[in-house]
Amino acid sequence: MLKVHNINLSLGGLKILNDLSFEIEEGKITGLIGPNGAGKSTVFNVVTGLISFATGSVQLRKQDILGAPSYQVSRMGIMRTFQDAQVLPQISVLENLISASPLIRDASLFQVFFRPKMMERMKAEAAEKARELLKKVGIEEKSNVLAQDLSYGQSKLVEILKVFMSDAELVFLDEPFSGLYPEMIKVIKGLVYELIESGRTVVLVEHNMKLIEEVCDHVVVLDFGTKLAEGKFEEVRENKDVVNAYLGH
Ligand SMILES: Nc1ncnc2c1ncn2[C@@H]1O[C@H](COP(=O)(O)OP(=O)(O)O)[C@@H](O)[C@H]1O
Ligand SMILES: [Mg+2]
User: Which of 175, 183, 237, 248 gives 20 to 30 Å between its CA and that of 35?
Assistant: First the structure.
């Protein structure tokens, strides 16, 4: 589904990604793991258009996307969450979810100004879906709360619900479990599986190796921006370079 080929990236004179190549298979959960500073979040930034000056190629279903701005990348069906959940703080939880609906996200200025009724209808539709999602995870009472007033775990949860609001086919989750209580980890794990069941493909950055082992079909290991190994978790766990990278940090 996604082919990342020979990506190189330097920031401030430092090599951050080094001839990095890997592929993401459709319908699977791929883990991207490696020590802190290995370049995992940077890979997400490159693929989703937040960093535009990497060299190499990134293809989504054989279409070149490297260098495309992030709004175009999201229209092409790729969505990400952030290590430090990024919800829009000054608007309500419900509005945060609505903003991820493709109907609203991709509305043109023409529609906004000259088709107000249609916009209202689309917004109501999105709001209904958003309320259902909030109910499903048991935080429907938060729908009118400003996103800035959510707890850390709740904002991570809302960020993932935004993916369900979207039409994204390929989802990059940057440490969705980090810093969460066990109950919240369980809820989010359930949502990750639901993403797959709803026909989406998931790439997951996570430090908890138990979770990676449990959830991922395939694992890519990064260290200093270089791919050390890839394969099934049981295989890469035995890999000497991987063991050294983790022990050496
Ligand atoms: N904007 C930036 N400018 C300079 N260096 C950066 C920037 N963002 C990240 N880095 C560096 O890139 C490397 C990889 O970072 P990152 O992708 O965040 O790692 P990971 O997500 O694997 O912990 C780190 O050495 C980090 O310090
Ligand atoms: Mg990171």
Answer: 183
